[in-house]
Amino acid sequence: MPNKKSAKKRVLTSERNRLYNKYWTSRSKTAVKSLIEAAASGNKDEALKSFNVAQSVIDKAVVKGVMHKNTAARRKALMARKLKAMEA
Fold first, then answer.
1. CATH assignment at residue 78
2. Which of 30, 35, 56, 66 is deepest in the core (most CB within 10 A)?
3. Is the dihedral of CA 45, 47, 53, 55 positive or negative?
4. With pLDDT > 90 as the criterion, what percentage of the chain qualifies?
């Protein structure tokens, strides 16, 4: 337990940030998983819709500083490959 007032404030701030980061991280992972499941089932319309939603969520996570832009680019490329493989 921190002794100084500023250290106590940092504990509260870091816990708030941890929950915020956890929310956006889990939201982006869920969006990617829904796309992968839709692609595996062969539902083209659902997969395309999930792709657009997942891209949007990942981009928002980057803007908010939760995810690095290269990580986002890698995940979006993975999703695009899954979508393209399903179409072929």
1. 1.20.58.110
2. 35
3. negative
4. 93
